[in-house]
Design brief:
- This protein is mainly β.
- It is built from no helices and eleven strands.
- A hairpin with a 7-residue loop joins strand 9 and strand 10.
């Protein structure tokens, strides 16, 4: 069974930074890709960023480009999201996800709250 455990959320003032981490565990789990999504109560979950495990190529939502950086450590099956220049509209629960192949279903973490205040 694969487990994803997020950490690093919290409260910060606008303009500040946070770094989220997501650790994947499972005896034979080798990610194909991993990513971050976020959700505000009453709204749909939205894509934030993703990274392909093999070559490290990344993708970002337009709203976070230039401010957020996704990275990974292959050996540790861990992914990070460095969030700089945070804005109040970045406030949400952030979820990490992962899949083992292009055709696999996604595993999801439990989520971590990020709150950005003025």
């Amino acid at each position: 069974q694969v487990q994803l455990v997020e950490s690093g959320g919290g409260s910060v003032q606008a303009g500040g930074s946070l770094r989220l981490s997501c650790a994947a565990s499972g005896r034979t789990f080798s990610p194909y890709d991993m990513g971050w999504y976020r959700q505000v109560p009453g709204k749909e979950r939205e894509f934030v960023a993703s990274i392909y495990w093999n070559d490290g190529s990344t993708s970002y939502a337009d709203s976070v480009k230039g401010r957020f950086t996704i990275s990974r450590d292959n050996a540790k099956n861990t992914m990070w999201l460095l969030m700089n220049s945070l804005k109040p509209e970045d406030t949400a629960i952030y979820y990490c996800n992962a899949r083992q192949s292009f055709w696999s279903s996604y595993y999801w973490g439990q989520g971590t709250q990020v709150t950005v205040s003025l």
